[in-house]
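Q&A FORM
Asked by: J.P.
Topic: structure of Ubiquinone biosynthesis O-methyltransferase

PROVIDED:
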Amino acid sequence: MPKTQNFDPTELAKFSDLAHRWWDKDSEFRPLHEINPLRLDWIDGLVSLNGLRVLDVGCGGGILADSMARKGAAVLGIDLASKALKVAQLHALEAQTQGVEYREVSAEALAAEQPGSFDVVTCMEMLEHVPDPASVVNACAALVKPGGHVFFSTINRNAKAFLFAIVGAEYLLNMLPRGTHEYAKLIKPSELARYCRVVNLDFLETKGMEYNPLTRHYWLSADTGVNYLVATQKSQVA
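REPLIED BY: S.T.
REPLY: Here is the structure written out as tokens.
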């Protein structure tokens, strides 16, 4: 039986309480707005999104999903945070975004319902918030077509990540609410690679994302010590 309850109620409540601020670019979600052009261009540069069927797992208020639809993709955003989804739907109506839909369903449940249905699956800034990230990776692999692409982004687990992503971002710079991330839930690239390898997702490219707090500038690099992104491709033959 597929796992359909892979979520932490505390995490859902945390993001639901902030749902009305998703599209406020000066809110707690400012970092997501600022990194979105980077991650969008990186994805679209590896796999042109125009005309593709795309799934965004853990879409929240729809920042990435909306921007991928504007690149010409037919996007389904899924999440288990009801309030965030309502905000995403309202924004799509107000912004008149074409080609994006939202649904309250887990990745595992959708994988059982629609296996092999998407050209591209994205799962960004989400794996570190669930009890069983390997289950989500497995669902993403099941949802993408053979030869299709799955993109992840998450945070490394090491002393540098603790210092920069938790102490720095949450307690010193106040870029994120305190308690946004739990160190024990962070994921090493080697662990994510293992999850992917088991479900026939081949690593294509890994990028680090860095930030200068003085200039408030983000950029992609080869340093995966803190935030990192991974591009994978589903094997044609299992």
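FOLLOW-UP: The chain has one domain: 9-234.
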